[in-house]
Amino acid sequence: MAFDRVLARLIAFFTSLRLTVVCLALGLVLVFAGTMAQVDLGLYKVQTEFFRSFFVFWGPKGASWKLPVMPGGYLIGGVLLINLVASHYKRFKFSSKKAGIWLVHFGLILLLVGQFLTDVLSRESILHLRDGEAKNYSISQRQAELAVIDRTDPSQNTVVAIPQGVLAKGGTVRNRYLPFTLRVEKFFPNSQISNRSLSAADPPAATQGVGPQLTVTQVPHVTVTDQSDVPSAIVNIDTPQGSLGSWLVSEWLGTWENSEFTPQPQSFTYAKHSYELEMRPRRFYVPFTIKLLKFHHDVYAGTDIPKNFSSRILLERPDTGEKRQVLIYMNHPLRYAGQTYFQASYDPDNQGSIFQVVHNPSWLTPYFACVIVGIGLVIQFSIQLFGFTLKRSRRPAPQPSGAAPLKRRLA
Amino acid sequence: MKWPLKILPWLFVALFGTEIVAVMLPKKEGEYHVQEFGRLPVLLDGRIQPYDTMARNALLQIRSMGSVPIEQVPSWKFWHHPETLKATPWLLEVMTRPDVADTRPIFLIHNPDLLDDLKLQNKGIDNSGLRYYTYNQLAPVLSEIAEQGKKADEVKAEEQTPFQQQVAKLANALMIYQRLKVTLQPEGTPNLSAEIQDFQKNLPAAQVAAQASASGKPFDRRALARIAQPVSDFRLMNQLAYALIVPPYPKEKGNKWRNMGASILDAFQGSGLNPAVKYLAQIATAYHQEDAQAFNTAVAKYRDWLKPAFSKDLRKGRAEYFYNSVNAFLHATIIYIFAFILAGTALLLYTLAPQISESFRISAFYLVILAGVVHTFGLIFRMALEGRPPVTNLYSSAIFIGWGAMVLGIILEWVYRVGIGTIVASLVGFITLLIAHNLALGGDTMEMLRAVLDTNFWLATHVVVITLGYASTFAAGLLGIIYIFLGLFTPLLTQKLEPAKAAAGAAPSRRMATAASRPGAQTEGQMEIGKALSKMVYAIVCFATLFSFVGTVLGGIWADQSWGRFWGWDPKENGALLIVLWNAIILHARWGGMVRDRGIMNLAVFGNVITSFSWFGVNMLGIGLHSYGFMAAAFKWLVWFDASQAVIILMGLLPLRYWRSFRTHALAAKKVTTETAGAPQPATT
Lengths: 411, 685
Prior knowledge:
The structure holds 2 protein chains of 2 kinds. Chain A is α+β, with helices and mostly antiparallel strands. Chain A folds into 3 domains: 2-121 and 365-393, no CATH class; 123-132 and 285-359, no CATH class; 140-284, no CATH class. Chain A is 32% helix and 36% strand. Chain A is built from 9 helices and 18 strands. Chain A has helices at residues 2-14, 17-36, 38-41, 43-51, 73-90, 99-121, 164-169, 365-394, 403-410; strands at 55-58, 67-71, 123-130, 134-150, 158-163, 171-173, 181-188, 191-195, 214-218, 232-239, 242-250, 266-270, 273-299, 306-317, 322-329, 334-336, 339-346, 352-359. In chain B, α3 (51-63) packs antiparallel against α9 (162-181). Chain B has 3 domains: 33-181, no CATH class; 192-311, no CATH class; 327-669, no CATH class. Chains A and B meet through α2, α4, α6, β14 and β17 of A and α23, α24, α25, α26 and α29 of B.
């Protein structure tokens, strides 16, 4: 009996319109707070802290503790979803009169679920090509990987890439393609590297490679939208015969284009194989190559207002023999093999193009959701407005005296 | 109704209609065919526009007004309209007779610190409390202004002090002015045609001399010296020219519009002197020498020369000149004000003088329709000029919000004939056009669209729909305000629609008769104004929900098309989402019986705050993809607007015993309440 009562109360709670309004209001506050917070925190951090979370935490600056002060996007969205489904299950009988409401809410469910799937499944990366250059991978803007490259065979490299997440956990990394293990001594999610003068008291970053000439320090996370963290790590290489010393690996040292330090691969030899260590942005490979034929940047006559950015590319897929030219320009991306390539940016000298590469299996859900909700709203409101006129013509008799509306207002 | 009251609405329509027709009729040219010159095309800001537009926008940026008063009229002589110099003649003067132009008080400075700094307090001309300065007065402190302006530009807009804002604006105005001066001819040249001919004549000898000099042979120094001055003049023009005024010659692919200096310098290689340069030089020379006959001939000849190859550009220039001179939005604004005053008065007289009230109401309604026609005319003309959907920037969004609210208001008035719809249409129309006018002070309002925006499909769908969402949310908010004011200060909320007319025994007007014959009109007539307002707000919130939801999702889809992210929590996206959420809250709260009429009104008023944040506020955060930069003046107004809405909501929360509309019924109601307190209210209507 008690269980029944609790259940009845729970059902009443989760199906109440009051809960809907409270959730919508909390959502409103969350979106507003999340917008204002972008000024200080930056878009990326706000997304993870406000919208992709169950609670928004707050603590005084510098303090180590934080309190949940507001429900986050996942919590509000989740409760709204339960509320929506439960109310429909319990209260609404399907009838032509309620068709509009059903459509609206079904579309909303589709939208919410689709966005949740996008959050979980989608992957954004960057493809930077100079004119004439071709690549079969794009790189992550947020994630690094430690590549251990076996360059022994001149015709082919063997690469073992260790994702940033694994490095961050620390401990020892083993891989069956490597005859040694990597022990992560320290990991810096965001770091600063500087040259170390010989007399300086600060300790060298590592014992091998470029390590002795440099120091590395931990710095806070970047909040500006167009910049990202630069991770570093110190790893020990342990072989069955003993340690090969500690190595500093960092995106600052990479051989990739944005590095401030001159590229100097750190290499060592073990068991007659020569290896190279490189911390680089995480790569996502695709089974085709994209070659940039020509990037165009048009401006309006007599001004420097951009009129159009466009990239002519050559798409080549060896396994199917496909080979064709595509023009990618603003609002006209290339969708191919589950990836979508958008014209995102360009090199200052106009001889290189930067594409945003998005892999999002649920990209179509908002399109359907929008149509469904739109139709639902139109049906619902026209039923209601139409209903007014029907009611009015059906009841030509005057309403009860003027006090009636007042009663309601005061009730 | 007595006949004077019957014809009053038509008198108003005739009065304002005549004015509109008068503006549209072609005006007589003066001694100089300045209008004809004003229609000629130039290329500026990436688009073909007439000289007139260039002149107006430059003057707006310099003086915040589209014309220059020539005579000083003491402010107490308000009936005396000072003679003014219109934009195009002012431009001609700046370009060809800078000595005169330099004496016109056009530079506005009102910051006392800046005046102190520049030691200008006692100079300048006082015009209705604002101080204007001539170029000559500023000449001694030009370098200081430029330096201070540069410093101010380095400070972020939201952190600029009033002093820095003013000095940055002044430096910009001076820069525009100086560039205008060398757009048509070198400053102070008495006879450009002759100068070009001399240059042409002296050039071959100078070229020989230059070659000789380069190879170390003896050369004619005088031949080089003869072209030294013109060359440096034309180079300066090439560097600084404000607009590209010389059309491509010969007209073929690869040839572009160029500025005057470049055209002259390159004239003597390859294709020779561009005929347009010759005509423009004649125009400049004639205006400088005050030779009206020669000026008119040169303008006509240049126009005839343009006709075959540049007829499209000529037509564009003429059309835009017409658009500028009609100034449809200004006239719509004026009519909106009158309509608002009339409709407001009609409401106040609702019970006191029903017949006069009705006459005023109809007058206001007709005027709003007239203003709406003018507003629509301007909107469509603008769309045709740009070849774009109605909303392309903040300026046009203001105009379109006003337009949407106008249409909504007229529909409301059509259904509920109490003048409230007219008030909504006229007030939102007036305020948004005022906002648009102030936004226009920033420069060209038909600027070219950046690459990502250059898509008529999304502008026509997402932008239009979302802007209609703004418009309807504002309309609902205004209805809420009207409810609160009428309730607190008048007894009208509990009055019946079409009340006293029947009671007074007057024969209903023809309009009322048709209204009464519509189905349901009888019960509608029995409805209280308060109830009617509540229904209006409900209907409009429904529309607002539809528009803002569909608009927001369409925006997401556009984002998915252009950078692969349906939703990125960008501030502008969030702003749109806030409106959707807010409208959803209002609807659900109503369906759940959590709020009644008054609650809905208060919620609707808060919708104004949310919409203003979404429309203007998020653009000023300085972050995100829709950031247009901080606007100090707009920010101040935004804060005031939001504060006023908060005050109105507080007023709306006052206990009902303070409400004039309900006070008279208070005693009777108390008794009734005790009897029916438990009666539930139906959730929906």
